[in-house]
Structures are given as structure tokens and as C-alpha cells.
Design brief:
This protein is an all-alpha fold. The protein contains 18 helices and no strands.
């Protein structure tokens, strides 16, 4: 085809090219536009379903009690106030509780990921007796809800003993409930919150890393541990980032283990559960209103407390967004 013919072809209008293609070009253009429109509506609907409850809580948190029962007030408060945040912070003892939750969540997340990484690497690279059986137990940890084991966990840590040694020496078993120690022990033994899922994810990641990397390290004189820490662990940064963020967020909002074992430790998830009762007590005994808190005002304070619990997680995501998205995409490609 000569240069002149190419220029003439490029000078054709859309309708001329559509006529030459037998109408295919128009059909393709219409289908592309329709696909984009449908995609926009689907994405908008999904985002709205996710964000609408949060936006609704933000709106309610700045409303005075009279706005809650005003039919003219829908999203924008007429009587703007920050008293809801002050009361919620007071009822949850927010400063102390926030610090306790941060320390517990951060330490538990680090401990869980450290232990689960070793176990996941062992499942991916080594052969040992009953390997399939133990991995089946890991899968069961993912499937079986922790509430199923609540009675046995309660009794085990209420009368904690190691092969009867403690009872033999002291005459009584130890009661570890009411402290964070049982949860640290469970996390150390890979029996903490969602530990089975972390082991599974890390195991799948290491299985897809070429063994030639380890073999080359062995040839250079590295031992098993040195190869793991110097070669394999840096490559596992994406999946470890994902698992750490999952562990931190789930621990931050956990209500089951914190209520079962850490009853004497003030955590945000437990304080949030008691905020309605404390509001009613405040209105009756402090404000001397025998009717107590109304349903709408109680929901507003609970919504405010919920926002105060999840805002640190949103801030964490904003700072870790790039690494989190990269870790998910990288782990998705390798898995």
C-alpha cells in the first residue's frame, strides 16, 4: 500500500469507515460506550453501598438531639455540635483505651505474623511426618469459628496448668483470665485470631517462589535460617504487609477474644459495647432525667463512638495504602 493510499484511508470519516466495515465499527463503538456506562453505574453503586453507612454516621455524629427527630433534617445538621464526641470519648475513656488497644493490637499482630511466617515457610518448603494432617488442622482453624471453642478455651485458661506441674508445686492451677497473657500464648502457638488464614496465605506465597533461589544460597554457604532471613524473607514483604494489616485491623475491632480473656484490660471494642449503658446512666444520675436516653440519641452516641474506633484504621490505611495495594496485587499474581 502506497503512502498516498494510506493518507486517503486515514482521511475517511467515521461513517465511511463504518460503511466499509459493514456496520461493525458502529456496533463496536456502541457496545464500548454501553460497557463503560454500565461499569460506572456498578462502581458507583458499590462505592455508595460501602460509604453510605459511614457518611450517615458522620452526619449523625454532629447532630444535636433535636435534629435527630426533625423531619426536615436529613444529612446536614441544623444545630451543629461536637458534644457527641466529647460524651463518647468520656464514656469510652478514649485516651487510655486507645493507648491500650494500640499496644495490644500492635504487639499481637507482630507476634502472629512472626510465628505464622515460620510455620507457613515450613509447610511450603520442608517435609515432615503427618504434614498433610497438620495442614488440614490449619484449614480447620479457618473454617471453625472461634465461638465453637469458647467453653474449652475458658476452662483451659481458668484452670491453666502444664502437665499437672503447676498444681503439683502450688496445689492449685493458675487462673490466667482477666489478663492479656492467654491471648499472647495463643498467638505464640498460632491459635490466635485468623492465624490459620495467615499461615495459608504465607504458605501459598512461599510455594510459588522458585527453589533455585534457595539452592543458590546453599551453594554459597548459607544455612537454612540464613537463607530464610537473607533471601526468602525480603521477597515475602508484600504478603507479610497484607497479613500484618489484616491482623492489626481484626485485633483492633475484635470483641470475642478481648471479652473472653482480657476482661480487665480496657480496649476500644469492649468499651464501645458498653457506651449505651453508660449514656443511660449519665442521663439518669448526672442530668437527673428519669426517662433515660432516647433511642435516637443512643444510636447517635454509638455511631459517634464507632467513628472514633474506625478513624485510626482509616488513617493507617491512608499511610499504608500503596504498600497494601502492591502486596495484594503481588500476592494475587504469585498465588
Amino acid at each position: 500500500m502506497t503512502k498516498t493510499a494510506v493518507n486517503k484511508k486515514s482521511e475517511k470519516t467515521f461513517w465511511e469507515r463504518n460503511r466499509d466495515s459493514g456496520g461493525y465499527l458502529l456496533k463496536k463503538k456502541v457496545s464500548d460506550i454501553a460497557y463503560r456506562i454500565v461499569r460506572v453505574f456498578l462502581l458507583f453503586g458499590m462505592c455508595f453501598l460501602i460509604l453510605q453507612p459511614i457518611l450517615n454516621k458522620i452526619s449523625i455524629s454532629f447532630m444535636a438531639e433535636e435534629d435527630l427527630y426533625n423531619a426536615m433534617v436529613i444529612a446536614v445538621p441544623e444545630n451543629f455540635t461536637t458534644d457527641n464526641y466529647r460524651l463518647a470519648a468520656q464514656f469510652m475513656d478514649y485516651g487510655k483505651t486507645f493507648l491500650n488497644t494500640l499496644v495490644v493490637s500492635l504487639s499481637i499482630a507482630i507476634l502472629q505474623i512472626a510465628v505464622c511466617t515460620l510455620v507457613g515457610y515450613g509447610f511450603a518448603r520442608f517435609e515432615f511426618p503427618l504434614k498433610k494432617f497438620w495442614f488440614a488442622c490449619v484449614v480447620l482453624m479457618i473454617i471453625i469459628p472461634p465461638q465453637t471453642l469458647s467453653t474449652s478455651l475458658y476452662l483451659h485458661f481458668q484452670y491453666f496448668d502444664i502437665l499437672g506441674i503447676i498444681k503439683l508445686l502450688t496445689g492449685n492451677a493458675l487462673n490466667l483470665r482477666g489478663s492479656a497473657l492467654p491471648y499472647y500464648l495463643m498467638s505464640l502457638g498460632c491459635m490466635g485470631l485468623k492465624n490459620g488464614l495467615y499461615i495459608f496465605m504465607i504458605r501459598q506465597f512461599f510455594r510459588n517462589i522458585p527453589k533455585e533461589l534457595e539452592e543458590a544460597a546453599y551453594v554459597d554457604g548459607c544455612g537454612t535460617l540464613k537463607t530464610f532471613f537473607r533471601i526468602m524473607l525480603p521477597d515475602a514483604t508484600p504478603i507479610l504487609t497484607s497479613c500484618f494489616l489484616f491482623s492489626f485491623v481484626w485485633q483492633w475491632t475484635d470483641g470475642f477474644y478481648s471479652k473472653t480473656f482480657m476482661g480487665n484490660v480496657s480496649l476500644l471494642s469492649r468499651q464501645l459495647q458498653m457506651i449505651a449503658d453508660r449514656l443511660d446512666h449519665y442521663i439518669v444520675f448526672t442530668l437527673h432525667d428519669a426517662t433515660g436516653a432516647s433511642v435516637g440519641y443512643t444510636n447517635a452516641i454509638v455511631a459517634t463512638g464507632t467513628l472514633m474506633v474506625i478513624v485510626p484504621l482509616i488513617v493507617l490505611y491512608l499511610f499504608a495504602q500503596k504498600g497494601f495495594v502492591e502486596s495484594l496485587s503481588s500476592s494475587g499474581i504469585k498465588m
